[in-house]
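Example complex used in Figure S2.
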Amino acid sequence: MENYRDEILRVENIVAGYGNMPIVRDISFNLKKGEILGIVGESGCGKSTLIKAVSRINGLNTDILGGKIFFEGQDLTKISNEDKRRLLGNDISMIFQNPEASLNHSRKIGIQFTETIRSHRDMSKEEIRCRIGEIFESIGLTDVDRILNSYPFELSGGMAQRVAIALAMVLKPKLILADEPTSALDTTIQKQVIDELLALREKFNTTMVVITHNIGVVSKLANYTGVMYGGRLVEYGETEKVLKEPIHPYTKALLGAVPKLGGELPVGLAGRPPKFHELKDGCAFCKRCAYAKEECECFDNKVTQVESNHRVICLREA
Amino acid sequence: MNMKKNIIKRLVQFIPVLIGITFLTFSLMYISPSNPASVKASAGGITPSKEVVEEIKEEMGLNRPFLVQYVSWLGNLAKGDMGSSYITDEPVIDKLMVALPYTLKMAFLSMAITLIFSVPLGVYMAAHKGGIVDFLLRIFAFIGNALPNFIIGIFLLYLCSYKLGLIPVLSTGGWIGVILPSLTLALVMSTRYIRQIRAATLDELSKDYVIGLRARGISEHNILFKNVLKNIMVTVITLTGISIGSLLGGTVVVEMIFNWPGLGHLVMEAIGKRDYPIVQGFVVWLSVAFMLVNLLTDISYTWFNPKIKEI
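Predicted assembly (629 residues):
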């Protein structure tokens, strides 16, 4: 019971896609307070679709075709628009692939902060100013007044990115959904952003789902790692386990493709992920898999629990 | 600071443009076949003799070389004198000043009606795309766009004046009389505005920052009226600038139908009677009005789009 109370996000057998076309299938995981899940995979594996579907933001065009999403025990798939609005930005925040684009470029940053805060809380001007200062400081933004008085396009890319992250954090949400928060940034700023996300977890015990195709980000940030392929979570477990003792051939291939310092440039995995409309029954990876057997083509994609917190979808383990 | 300098620069640029425009119209009238002297001579209703025409021609300075005539007209213009009507001998400036208030009244009233209706309706249609209001208004806008304004004008006249008797058929020039012509113009403009504002709003609503606003839990009402509306104002201003410019020149067809004594009415008559000084004076007014409106439009862009810092 104690554990259940700490649970922030539980995703149960989610099937989601665009229109009637499922992209992600049978995704399940749950996260407690302060836990970070990293989801990796090549482009076109359904990572973004998954996080968009979980966020339930109107206008992203992702439809939930099956399954349930619970946020603190409340089913997000059945929630009214107004209840959803109250959660978004307040308890659940989203950091976008290009966070800068989530700001309105014709309004000053200060107004956008005030607007967000006033949409959820009744705070005085001084309290708002104080809260913004606190958040800015926690992610290393100085010069608060100048930033609040600027338009987003007047800031440098990295600064605007951090402002957007600060805006997502300003109400100290319980859950942050981050869709490749670092991929648009250069490496030094990438590191800063990772450090900031970690600092936020330290300070506010924030739960996060972070989408990335950077294994390094996952190893630094995440308690749990999920590997996606063909819209399925083919391997899921504690980051330590998944990265050190990968089971699924795709996870192995993905880790094998990470360049090492001083080593030779690794050869990438041949081929590309399947297009979603070409997906047939059976294992989606079998065409590129070194261990593929004939039976793989009619595999029912059953989840095998390898250890208590480590599971995989692969015929070799079934 | 910089803004002030730019405005002055733009005002100075008006001068060569004005010279170019007036030179062109002056040449066009010079090469047109009708002879102002015989027009003036026959104003009394009798066919004048050749000698009389020749005399008047000399009197009017029409025997001078073209360039001399133009430069002398330009010199007078600089002094604020636009010459006199060939027909009535009244100063052009007086005739324009009599018609101008009528045109201004109609221009601003029709513009106001247009904006009051089309901005909220266009935004509403975009926000409720595919709904019944959107569907009906799109049909209305489509039909309105296809109908010429004189059809709408005559229809309104028939309905409001003849059938319902609300408004006198012949305008008295007062506030009652301005309603129908303004309404006619506003109806025609609104059909175009509604479509454009709807399209601009839809375009704006599909942008990433709107998703961002939703992700922050901003209400749809605030998304539309505090964020999107400001961003579509640039489109609205562009449309308004173009419309105001042409409205200030008077609207010939509508003024004729409703017998509204504005500039369009005046210039139409002047063209018919080859009263060139009036036409020329009208062209001066129209060019200045257009350039001023464009300048104001550019200035107001800076209020709504902070990325535009200079004009």
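The CA atoms of residues 102 and 262 of chain B lie 5 Å apart. DSSP finds 13 helices and no strands in chain B.
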